[in-house]
Amino acid sequence: MNNGQAAVSEHISLERLWSKLNEVCQLFGVEVTENKSFIDLWTECVEYIDPEVLLGVKERIVGSDILSSQMAKTVEERLQQLNKC
Questions:
Q1: How many Å separate Cα 64 from the centre of its chain?
Q2: Fewer CB atoms < 10 Å away: N or C end of the chain?
Q3: Could you name the domain of life of the organism this protein comes from (predicted)?
């Protein structure tokens, strides 16, 4: 795969990821605005997800890139908050 193909594949993956996040935002009534980053929206959505589902989500987040790391960290922090309650 050349660099152009890699960039296109990465772009499509990010586009699909944004699309799925938008669906989750609609489901939970999280307002999507231009001034919110992906992680801001993700963090708001995580607040509504059932703890058992969050455990499954955490296991499915793979990758060592910054976005994956931030997503996993957000889920872990939410699970820790729920365990304190």
A1: 14
A2: C
A3: Bacteria
Query: Is 39:71 a contact under the CB 8 Å cutoff?
Result: yes
Number of C-beta neighbours around residue 30 at 10 A: 20
Whole-angstrom distance, CA of residue 58 vs CA of residue 53: 9
**Along the 85 residues of the chain, how does pLDDT read in single tens digits?**
444 444 444 555 888 889 999 999 999 999 999 999 999 999 999 999 999 999 998 888 877 888 889 999 999 999 999 998 7
CA distances from 61 to 11, 28, 31, 68 (A): 18, 20, 23, 6
Q: Tokens for 74, please give them.
A: 């957000």
Q: Which structural domain range is residue 12 located in?
A: 3-84
Q: Please say whether the beta carbons of 77 and 63 come within 8 A.
A: no
Question: Looking at the 3D structure of the chain, how many domains does it have?
Answer: 1
